[in-house]
Each structure stands twice: as structure tokens, then as C-alpha cells.
Amino acid sequence: MTKQEVLKKYFGYDSFRPGQELMIDSVLAGRDVLGVMPTGAGKSLCYQVPALLLPGITLVVSPLISLMNDQVRALNDAGIHAAYINSTLTETQVAKALGYAAQGRYKIIYAAPERLGTYEFSRLANAVDISMVTVDEAHCISQWGQDFRPSYLKIPDFVRSLRRRPVIGAFTATATEEVREDIRRVLELMDPQMLVTGFDRKNLYFAVEQVRQKDRFIRKYVREHEKESGIIYCATRKNVDRVYEMLRREGFPAAAYHAGMDSQERRKSQEDFIYDRKPVIVATNAFGMGIDKSNVRYVIHYNMPQSLENYYQEAGRAGRDGAEAECVLLYSPQDVVVNRFLLDSKEGTAELTSQESAVVRERDEIRLRAMTTYCTMTKCLREYILRYFGETEVSPCGNCSNCLREYEEEDVTDAAVVIMNGVRQLRQRFGINVLAGVLRGRDNAKLRSYGLDRCEAYGKLEDMSEEKIREIVNLLLQEELLFMTLDKYSLLGVTAKGRTLLRQYEASLAGRDGAEPVRLILRSAKEGREREEKGAAAGRKAAGQRLSEILTSRGLELFDKLRGLRSELAREEGIPPYIVFGDKALIDMCVKVPLNREEMLDVSGVGENKYARYGERFLKEISGFTGGKKEKLCYGGYAGEEAVSFQPARPRKRQGKSEFFLTREQADSFPYRERYATAELAEALNGLVDGETVKRITGKAILQYAQNLGYVREQSVDGQRKRTATEDGRRHGITMETGAAGTAYGELYYTADAQRMIVESFVAEDF
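Predicted structure:
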């Protein structure tokens, strides 16, 4: 059997995702591999497919009991013999599983790292042929990673104890370059095939909301998404209990999960969530690692996590099926204080020397600073995340809360200079709280005891709020004009770049020859309290397609029927619904309307074993709904797994301006001509609407729509990001020509056909 045949027969897919084939081919050739692939990119197939083609057993080392349970259940459901060995089994069950493994019954065995050192497991390992050892969550082996687990250090010893060295595979979703090197070194990987597929999850919408009333935001959000599955993460058990009780009082079917609950309560909460009995779960970060629930539509962080690694891993539990999902972080400055306290009392460092503990704490502080910057910046959130993980060829996404939010720009140069001079006058010996007190001229004993009420900076910004001072300090930190020490005191200092800026500022004021004026611009969100009032409803508008934008009303009706059948089958077999079929498979059924075995096997995610178990029941449901005839139940523009549409989200009625849309009358009056450049087309569209009530459409938005459809491609040319028309784009009337100004890379133009397509895409028929 070939790898393609394994992929189709057992997993129901026709082709591999980017990077999977490289990893699989390397393993089959006997080469070690190290793969860094974001959640949802298909890491598990990189070792599950070769496991079925290699002669012996594949051992998967994982710290995540929930992952083992889910993966083994899904593998057995697909017709693959697999087992797990962890603390959920009794000793009798462990002995039975080891006995079956010795008989060659299993191709894949999952085990916790603690099991590797036991006598029983060591005896099994030397009695059978282990072709591959896969290390999942491989970042846990690095002391410099965000989730170091000393038990992972047992893995190299275990491998060395085997009669024959197997292929070693290491996989993780989040690892900086430094952590990747540590994984390679500690696991003793031999000339590994390295793969970093890219960290971008295009189906996820990222948002940071600085709201005063987090509970109110949560209530409104959950109510607006009541039919969707979501996770709400809290930093402490106390917050989990409080938010859970709030939702329960409001009548929302929610579950709670944290380490303070007994194991039976936690298991019930987890199962209620996985089996869709309770679509929302409120939890600490103890929940979720390895949960393979594919239809999580949102992840809300009630508090800021301790690092971007943690955040991206937790947020990445949304949208594992590739459909659109939201990741919303509710930030307040108090979150930083809470996280510093949690880091100071961090467990798991007892086995480290005092010097190693100090280094780990310093790295924790660096990660916390990066996380705080993410929450307070006004630049693109996605771009910041990708650059943090080492990607350089990135640009603003146009699809996060910062990119979509309107900002007011304010020149804060004079205040910023006062702040930097204040830091210098305090001799870089104090943090932001003392600095703000001095600048505002606060009268208290602490400042007087240090003599700070007599320094030149005292009272220089007495009319400015402390919140505004903090905003400007954050700007200066982001621009690397100030730095903050990495100890618990977080003292402020002026960088060399900051001292240069101060000299330029003084030279400019003095009117010296050649001195350029200095400007520092602070961007503040216009929306303010309005965003808090309306919640995050603006979220998913550009994150991808909603289900209602893919399926017609009849299609949605069939989808609900198929979802009901899925739940019925899941109850019959005692498995989570998503293991029967994921949402993407159900959507594909509604689009393709299969009426026989061959057509059903063409549906994404339907393999031969899945068809044998469930296919006939779904065919019967579809045939009964359509009367046994083909019926178009989706809108145009559906492109398989990458479902895209040129139709923007419907305009929402709200206070202030509506998102751009056209009435039928306005569309009919569009001034068509031979061709428009992008900016000209945007202006022609804007000329049709009332600018007092409807937001203007931008050329960037038009380009983004065309890019989503695959009509325009963005690529690097001589180190610069440039857009060009694809073959499909040219077929639809989008061309690349030399612009009027003779620009080096030309200009995109839209013929009458392309104009008509774009105009029609913005029509809201019922307005």
C-alpha cells in the first residue's frame, strides 16, 4: 500500500497538506525529523501514515492523557489498531495492553513519558520491533521552552536502551529557533529533516479588547454565539468558578474545569464539552492540551496568558477543522501583576540549580513582556505573532482587531521627551509607577522619602492621566526608545536609540543646520466604550466564510439534519460527534450532495472505513432530503476545503456608520467604463453611497477580497511585497498593466466584467 492509499483509505483525504509529505518520506527513508507545525496543520498524520507502512510499532510519547484518548479513539474508529498506556488505566489493564502489544496487535502505542522508565515497559520495548519513536509536544524537553517537563528527559535514555535505534520524530506547534535547537540537541536527533511550515492560521481572527466590564462582554458574546462551541480561559481557579457561575445563572449550558476539582468532576466537564452536551467550557490552562475537538468556534481569554507561546497554543484550539473561528483576548493591566505573581510561584523548577532557575525566570519575564506588548500595541496582531516565531516575510493581515479598528493619531513627541528625560533624571532606578507619580506631581510620603519631589521632572505632566502616561511609555518601549529590566522590579531606562532621539529633538528645537524634526505618534482606538457596548460582533466579518455564506437556506437545513444524525450515531457508539465526521465533512456533503458510494468517498474526510461504518446512513439522509436528486445547496465560489466567497458579510445595523454596502438602485447606477485602477474603483463605489451613514470602501479591501478568491496573488519581488493578477483573475477581467506614473511593478486594473462582479458582491438586496 502506498502513502496516498493509506491517506485515502484510513483518513479520507485525497492529498497531503503542505509539509506532511516531506516528513512522511523522510521517516520512511529512515531519517529523523523535527516538525514545527501550527495546531490544525496535521502533525499527527506525519507519524500515523508512516506508522502503517513501517514494519514494526510506532511509539508516540505524549504528556497529554486527553490527546492519547482522543487519538486512539479516532484511530480505532478509522480501522487502525492503536492503544494508550497512561495513568487512567488500572495495572490489570496496563498488563493486558502490554500483552496485546507484545503479540503485535497494535501498530501505534501512545505512552506518557513517565512510563518509559518502568520495568514492564522496558521489557516490552526490547521484545518488539519499534520502528519509530515520536515525541509529541517536543518543546516540553527544552528548559528554555514555555512548558518544560523534566519527565521528557527520560526519552533519550529510553532510546539508547533499545536494541536497535529507531527513527526519531519530534513535533510541536510552537517553538522559537532557540527551542528548536534545544530539541535537536537533547533528543540527539541525527541529521534531522527540519520543517517549519509557518505559524499562520489564516482561518483565525485575532482580537484584543481592553474592556472595563469583562463579565458583561462575556455574557453578550456567548449569547450572540449560543449555538457555537467555545472555550473561555481564566488565569486562576477563582475566576473560573466565578465566570462559570455567572454563565450558569444566565441560563447558558456551560462546564467548568480546573485542577482544584476532583478527577471525576473534571472528567464529566470535559466529556460534556467534547460530546457537545455543554458547548461552552470555562477553564484554566490545565484544560485543552491535546483536546482534538474540531468544531471550537471561539476561544476567549478572560485574562492575559504568560507568553505568546501559551497564547497561540491555547487560541489555536479554535478552528481545528479549518473553518473560521475567533480568538479574543480581554486585557487589563492587572493581568500583568497576576502573571508575575504566578511566575514567582511557578512549579517544576525544583530540579534546576539556582543559576538555571534564575535564567528560566528571566526568560519567563521576556516572554511576559512580549505578551504584554501584544496586548497594548496598535499594529497588526497576526504580523506580531508571526514575527515573534521567526517569520520575516510577513505584512499586516487586514484581518485582526487592530487592522480593522479605526484609530486616532496624536502627536505625543513633547510628552514622550518629558518622560524619557524623567527616566534619566530618576537615574533609571525606578519603575513606571514611581515615574508616573513624579511626572503627575503626586504628593505622597514615598516620593518625598526618596527626594523625588525635588527633581526637575516633578509635576511636568500634572494634567495628564496616569493611563495616558502608561500608553506613551508602552509606545516608547515598542519603539525601543526605553527598556525595562528583567527583574521583578521592572526598572525603566533610556536606550542608546532613545538618547539619540533626545539629541535630535534638542537640535531641532535649537534650529541647528541639518537637524530633522522628531515626531512620535500615539494611535488610540476611536471606538472606546462603543466597542465594549457592542461586544466583539465585528469579529469574524473578514475572517473567512460564515456557514450562511457557503450554504443556501436549504443547504443549512440539510446541514442541521446531518448534524442531528451525527449526534445520534455518536450516542449509539459512545464517541464524540466530531469523531464520526467533522463539520467540514458535513459542509462538503451539503455542497457535493453525494447520492452513491463513489460520490460519498469523494467527500473530504470520508475514508473507506468511515464509509463502511456511517456512509449508508448519511446517504439515506441526503437522498431523503433531496428526493434522490442532485440539488445545488451552496452559493457560487465554493472551492473545496478553502471555501471562499466574494460576498462580504451582510451589513449590520448599529450606531454610527454601517459597513460598506450597496442597495440594488445604487448598484444599477454604477458608472461602468473600460477599466478602473483599484483606487479609482474604490472612489467610484464610494461615490454611490451616503458617506454620513456608510463607511467608505478602500482599495486595500477590494484587493483583499480579490486575493481571498485567488484572483490576485501577493508575492515577494526584489525583497518587496507585490500583488499580481493570477490566471483566474485575468480570466475574470483583472489585469496587470504599467501604471500612468510608470511604476516599476505596474498597476492592477479591472475591466467591465470584473467591475460588475465586484459591484454585485456588495449588493444587499433587502436594503
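Summary: Confidence is low (pLDDT under 50) at residues 528-544, 637-655, 739-745.
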